[in-house]
Amino acid sequence: MESDQSVYEDPDFKDEPWVLEQTTDCSELSWKSMDSDSFVSGNVVFKDRCPSADSLYEQTLDFLEPSCVSMKSDGSMIRPTVFKDTHHSANEMLYEPILDCPEPSCVSMKSDTSMVRPTVFKDGHHSANQILSEESLDVLSDQTAQQDQTDLVSVFMLLEENIITFVKSELKRVQRALRPDYPEYSESQGEDEEVLHDDEQRSSKESFLKITVNFLRMMKQKELADRLHSKSHGEVCQHQLKSNLQKKFQCVFEGVANAGNAVLLNQIYTELYITEGGAAEVNEEHEVRQIETASRKPDRPEITIRQEDIFKASPGRHGPIRTVMTKGVAGIGKTFLTQKFTLDWAEDKANQDIQFTFPFTFRELNVLKEKKFSLVELVHHFFTETKGICRFEDFQVVFIFDGLDECRLPLDFHNTRILTDATESTSVDVLLTNLIGGKLLPSARLWITTRPAAANQIPPECVDMVTEVRGFTDPQKEQYFRKRFRDEDQASNIISHIKTSRSLHIMCHIPVFCWITATVLENLLETRKGGQLPKTLTEMYIHFLVVQTKVKNIKFDGGAGTDPHWSPENRKTVESLGKLAFEQLQKGNVIFYESDLTECGIDLRAASVYSGVFTQIFKEERGLYQDQVFCFVHLSVQEFLAALHIHLTFINFGVNLLSEEQMTSRKPRVFRDKPKVKLLHQSALDKALHSPNGHLDLFLRFLLGLSLQTNQSLLRGLLTQTGSSIETNKKTVEYIQKKLGENLSPERSINLFHCLNELKDHSLVEEIQQFLRSGSLSTDTLSPAQWSALVFILLSLEQDLDVFDLKKYSASEEALLRLLPVVKASNKALLSGCNLSGRSCEALASVLSSQSSSLRHLDLSNNDLQDSGVKLVSGGLKSPHCKLETFSLSGCQVTEEGCVSLASALSSSLSHLRELDLSYNHPGESGLKLLSGLKGPHWTRDSLRADHCGEQRIRHGVIKYFFELDLDPNSANRYIRLSDNNRRATLVMEEQPYPEHPDRFVCWQLLCRHSLTGRCYWEVECEGEVHIAVTYRGIRRKTSRGHSKFGGTTQSWSLCCSDCSRYSVWHNNAETPICPPLSSYSNRIGVYVDCTAGTLSFYSVFNGDLIHLHTFNARFTGRLYPGFGFGSASRPGSSVSLCVC
Questions:
Q1: 3-class secondary structure, 1011
Q2: Are 111 and 230 in contact (CB under 8 A)?
Q3: Among 998, 997, 996, 1060, which residue's Cα sits nearest to residue 1028?
Q4: Is the model more confident about 974 or about 934?
Q5: Could you give all domains of the chain from N- to C-terminal order, each with its CATH number?
Q6: Could you tell me which residues are beta bridge partners of residue 1069?
Q7: How far apart are CA 839 and CA 813, in angstroms?
Q8: N or C: which end of the chain has fewer CB within 10 A?
Q9: Are 91 and 128 in contact (CB under 8 A)?
């Protein structure tokens, strides 16, 4: 051992030279610390051409087999491993087996040179899991002097076994990790490897990896060594990152960080309702309207996702998910969601297939707008634990970008240069666009959160899945208030009160608003004995401001609760915050930096003071390196203060900040006379109605609500004078009703009704409600404003949105277009036989394409839509937002051309359609073949219905259902003569020689031979008084009393035509006169029956046109037969003839 010395030193082991020793009498490996930095190699030869990782592993295991060791010298003695920090670890050294077999060997016991001393770790403790339990080592230490040498042999046999097991296990893990086909940190890894519960175990494994890397480099396996070094160093960085993220996210603050108490996130986190669906598109509604839409329960359960499964594909989805966008309105819990995801990962509870999770916020990224980074540098900048990693391609990485709506970086996905090198420096916006677009680090996963209005900043093709965070459900609202108010009666009263105001009830879907409401009501219940609780949003937010001002006076100013709360200092604070709120709302900003504050005349010190004393209104957040960021506790608070600023400025100083003149002028225009509030309201209404995305809707509600004298009394001290009267508000109401008469979008119209509610004017709504209650609603005479009121009412009655039947209001295209928002919100829309055209089809396509549409079942049957209309509707069916499950186009004049459009739309793998009704059309063989061959997740061979088809079905109107009748001689009364091949029946004086038959009527009636099925239409010509009827076959025959006559019982329905001058209908022996226009009287009558739908309609046929006379709606329970009869006033010669159409 004194020759053939060669020194090996690795940069990673500067102070830790190791010797690989092979004894002369056995093939064994052992480590020895060499003070001379010498490396001795006996028979072990490292060649330039080394074996593969697998074969290396096998060879290493061979070395580890026990063998006979000479004990006459100390050449094979195992000494404790000495690390550069002077600590020892038995787990971090490659141990030399000292025994050849389980049998004890002859060992010289005359000296202690072969004694193995316990390994000492850096913290002074001994490793217990892989070598020996701590208790055993203590006993061994205490009894070393007295212990019998035989016991040492058995102890070290066990020690040898444990070390060999550890080394084999670790080498197996290393070999598996170095395989090219081995997935990075697969989920099965957790099953094969023990979880490291303490730093000692983790340190042991990390040190062993360093030893293995060193060995591979000695063997000139540089590539394998580099790969293993990268992985082992990644584990160290991952451990440090997880530890720091746990510290960062395990505690959150209730309220504001500076004022609240830290609580554990895991304790207060409530599972949020996350649904899959939607797309990265602009929603033209204010967020409150979106909450209102989302609050309606779907017909069937939606696809819900837990936050830990955000990157897992749902059933039926193909392909990996790289980028997820989660949308949700302000205050709904998106940030908590990402923090919980990160914390669960850091605590090893979920997503352990991910090596690194990097949570960013756009608030912090905005600060780096003018700086340049490479992607690696950006990660190192925020997460210093990873500075030892120079590339992330070898790891599964998740980037979280929270708050896209707060981004002030110019994200240009169309004109940004392409970047693929993660080490190349550029601006942060270029980094983000290339990372999100998949050009940079395509193996990474991305999770982006945003408010809906900003979702379109990212192209849809860059997003694999869109999810949405919903607010509190109705039960969760109640649960919140019952937890907040321990008094059961008090909680029940508050819940009942909230339900009485639709505005408050809708807003309570947002958790933050529940907190605002609870804060206000708790204070009012304590300070007021009786009195009315706030019912409008404006009242609620005024009280909230007053409560926070009182808290500030007591907590910071040393005042009492009864002291005047609008001190000069408080007025100045509210005015400054109001100006900031309005000017930033105009720009669409919800977070504010120093430059934003400076524009509004607020310095950083003042802003910090505001956030310190009005902690529940305005808050300060500190990002990386203590950059100061400010925001209001919720967007609605900002909107309220913005409205308050406009109102105060107008009332106190006579300046209308919303007028066009004021918007373009730097100097405020002050009114010489007393300002007219109606001018302020009108300019606000005009501005809000022209907003493309409704971002001023809630602001408008607050502004109008502030004009009520009851609300102004609460602000006495802020206002120098009252600025409105009952007459002023009346004029504002009139202006709103005038605007409702214009061609507004449904979203803007609905918000105007919320504005009327803030003004406490319910006249228009109550008028329509009265019509609905009395059943006297006539849509023919409704004004546009009344139509809007009807929409608002129907949308408010959520229980009526399951099935929407247009015929209840008006079977017309105009009614459909007016009530389209109701169709959009309904689960099922019945639009059969409503005279719809292509115009309706285009409108319905927009409904189907809307991501907020609830429509699942659509019945368009009996409308002559033709192929052109079907093509328009198919455009909506193609949309990924379309969730239609059943679709009826029965009797819509669809031919092969329409089938082509349908097949193209339904060929998408995302189609939800499971039933298509094309009966009573003319699709032809090729059209049927095309649709029958469709394949989809819900489409089966039974999905298509195509009965009663043929060329005659492309005729217009109900004539397409023509059914040829045949009079039945066996049922004809003996005074009815049949002629014209049983197609004409005439009342005569002479008794006819009919044979006896049980079906023959005693009264002047007869039936047709064949029953009716499906949809049938026929026409007859009448002379004299004739009854045209439909009846069950079981009607009585052998009596002439009323219950055997057509229309005399519940089993038959009849139209009486008297000499073409009088019509009446009969059912259950009750007569209903019909008075059509004089020009519509005709002796030719058309009858249409839809047995399935339960409708029976009579028409007067005049010059080829059908004039509707009456429709019966019934639930037909048996086979129906056409029948005819003659009344008691009929004279001989009266007749009825079957016509051919």
A1: coil
A2: no
A3: 1060
A4: 974
A5: 276-284+303-471 (3.40.50), 800-953 (3.80.10.10), 959-1138 (2.60.120.920)
A6: none
A7: 8
A8: N
A9: no
Q: Are 989 and 980 in contact (CB under 8 A)?
A: no
Close Cβ partners of 401 (under 8 Å, ≥ 6 residues apart): 360, 361, 362, 365, 432, 446, 447, 448, 449
Nearest to 810 by CA among 797, 822, 795: 822
In this prediction, residue 47 has a pLDDT band, given cuts at 50, 70 and 90, of very low
C-alpha closest to that of 805 among 1017, 1094, 1052:
1094
User: Which region holds residue 1135: left if phi is over 0, alpha if psi is between -120 and 50, else beta?
Assistant: beta
3-state secondary structure of 719: strand
pLDDT at 209: 75
Residue 750: helix, strand or coil by DSSP? helix
**Residue 145 banded pLDDT, cuts 50, 70, 90:** low
What six digits make up the tokens of 355? 């090596």
In degrees and rounded to multiples of 5, residue 1047 shows phi and psi of 85, -5
- Burial class of residue 1064 in the structure, from the number of CB atoms within 10 Å of its CB (0-12 exposed, 13-18 middle, 19+ buried): middle
- Reported as type and span, the H/E element at residue 1124 is strand 1120-1126
> Closest Cα partner for 932 from 919, 923, 922, 941?
941
DSSP string spanning 942-977?
Answer: TSEE--S-SGGGGSSGGGGGB----B-GGGS-TTEE
Res. 933 pLDDT band, cuts 50 70 90: confident
CA gap 657, 649 in Å, rounded: 8
The whole-angstrom separation of Cα 670 and Cα 146 is 103
Q: Where are the alpha helices (DSSP H) in 675-783?
A: 677-689, 697-705, 709-714, 726-740, 746-758, 763-774
- The mean pLDDT of 1057-1070, rounded to a whole number, is 88
> Rounded CA gap, 27 and 21, in Å?
10
pLDDT digits over 253-290, tens only? 544 444 445 566 666 555 666 666 654 444 555 666 66
